[in-house]
Protein 1
Amino acid sequence: MSATAMEVTEVDTMAEVRAVSTLFTDVWGQTDEGAPVHSEVMKSLVHAGGAVTVARDGERLLGAAVLTPATPAGTAYSLLAAVAPGTSDRGIGRALKLRQREWALARGLTQIRWTFDPLVARNARFNLSVLGATASEYEQAFYGVMSDDLNGDDEADRLVAIWELAPEPPAPGAEELQLGGTPSADGPDGDPFLRLDGDARWIRVPRDIVALRRTRPAQASAWREVVREQFLDAFAADLVATGVSRSSWYHLTPRP
């Protein structure tokens, strides 16, 4: 299915936000507190000036995202976004983000922020290389230890994405990054995970941390520790994460 075959719009009825809550539960599973986001909370967010955006193919819900105005002035914060299981690689995530972009710009907002798991390479590439967001803040144990199906039994670190909303939307494709620099340290799997490239750096993460958390939780935790250390060091040196290669390497460059 192409993105043009989808209907992408905001919803506000209880039936619609309940369907979104069910989708989020299908993706993350039930937590100790229940659904990842309750329908009542989403209904209240919409009433307070936020938005619940959905992508649909007829009656089928393909994905959803939740956003609210935030601080500083001119900023929106994206709380959660997901596509339905089995519907990846169809442009749904991009369609949702572009709709959030339109919603924000129509209200005079010029920046969207959100957090994401630094170890999930696919999401990181989408956020930085496809959308054009950047990251220069690393939050340690942002959610403490989570209990859903994707995050495993480990501290949930997060990078903060900052998406400056340019007048024109980002191009559909992302130019592939050419890995540079010299290997400097090996990761928990024994292969290089840090490369120094003049003032820039490259940091590799696993290709599939979700599977690793299920099969080798100790190694997954070791990845979180070494990646945390390198990002904190890079950000202290005033570097900014600007892209992710298809081979799961973050590119960090000096702040402009």
Protein 2
Amino acid sequence: MNHKPWQSIFDAYRILQHDFSKSLFILTAEQIKKATAHFTTTTEREVRVLCKQDTKESRPQVFTDNNLFILPVKNGVYAILQGEGYVDIPEIDTPTKIYKSKLDFQLETSQIGNSEMQHLDFAYASSLIRSFLEDESLVLTIRGRKYTPKFEFYAGKYRQLITAESVQTEVDAGYEGKNQVVLIEAKNAEANNTIIRQLYYPFRQWQTYTKKKVNVLFFAKRKNEYSLWEFGFSDKRDYNSIQLLKSAKFEIQDK
């Protein structure tokens, strides 16, 4: 989990002496590179790898011990905050629903491979996404990496506005309907939590481009089950206002 490089970074810049209740600790990519230059492997020095902490468990020990998480706030600039940076993805304890595909033929190519994108595309092609959201008008319009416009938000225990700008986001799939935009973060493995940033940053990004309601979903394929969780933010400027709205798991069967 890159414990040693991060301990070296914390020691170099005396991060644990910082008062996180009063301000963020801002850390640049250049500072990270400088503090880890003596490490021998790429994974111990590469900024992108060191700052990728997508689950609670993937955090280095110094983050876990001090209830910290990291967020990008600009291209090559990061903020270390104290507080809750992650949201639980709860087990869905309701029975698996049988969903009849609305396609009148079997998709053969969707059975080749085992990727997140492939499973998500199959769920959409079968109209499962539309049915779950009760919106037959949804069409695929967003995919891939983009950079955010400038936006402000609150997060963690620091209750002053944080500014983010030109941060790279990636949406596995985004759909637009007559009255809403839906953004999906997909996983192809067991995940019981995720960093809120993966849902919040795209939410804020697309909310600036449309007057339609923006909804966010978490999607997972586990064995033969397709699981969906819909999340919302009660206050769009509050990173921690995330709420689970509904969830369900399905088994897709040919028509």
Protein 3
Amino acid sequence: MLRRLRLRRLPWLVLAVALCCGSAGAAEVLRVLSWPGYADADVVEAFEARTGAKVEVTVVDADETLWQRIVTRDGADYDVFAVNTAELQRYIDRGLLVPIEPAALSNLGAQLPRFRDPSTLPGTTRDGKLYAVPYAWAEMGLIYDRRQLDAAPQSIAALWDPRHRGKVLVYNGGAHNFSLAAQMLGKASPFRLDGADWTPAVERLIELRRNMLTFYVQPEESAHLFISRGAALMFANYGTQQLQLLRAAGADVGYVVPREGALAWLDCWVITRGARNKTLALAWIDHLLGTGAAHVLSTRHGLANTRDPAPHQADTERLVWLEPVEDVERRNLLWERILSGDRAERVLAP
């Protein structure tokens, strides 16, 4: 059971008064580091109106960017941020986060059972203390153009199919792409490459590079490239969020979870060691768990929230939840070399 901190949750009204009546009447400022779609203007405005605080939002689009933003000054530049459970461990290891008091979050009780019990979510606790609160999740399925493919792809091997050469969009991330290669190699865990696995994994990703039309980072960028460049198939790092963007733009696309299982991420809100006002940071997390923010997340951005059943509930048994990989720095370095066009022997050179 989580050890309870001796803190008392302030009601929203008391919190708002405390924030508005600070030194010299200046409003408190909450510094949020967010992924696209997690802190939209109307969601922020509702929080500001409710608390009297001001929110400064910085948006990131890659795990490594997030890490550099936080680690550069030991979290002193931000109060609260969102991170997936696979990346979470290195922040805890580095001492960059502080425990979260569950009793301060009234909306925790409204989450689906699978997200409400920390014991079922490996990595969100450490030494009996809660460090991360689940917020959004998605599986990384395959999006395909119905006009170019006669049938839905059934396997991630479709990304390597020579019939799609020059027609495949891939996310620009070494960690995830080496996990795809590990799935292609039949590894029991796509997050653990042994010494003998690196060469065939690199060879697989070099083959994937030959099929690539290009790569993307942000979901909006992927939708634009898919349509404007005539892609046939995409590894959807943001899952149904990208599907919704494409369909809103008029694309005739389908979406599948491959038979090998789709990698799936779970993003959580955490509080930095350098947070200036932890009560305000807790209030932000509780606000994001409310019905308003959850509705925005799902209807506007196509992402699954932790309150409502996911649209692809039947496929959840084939999800492969992200775990920390054996060497994220090596994966990213080798992926950069692969993108540069190096041959396998040069990619793997020290």
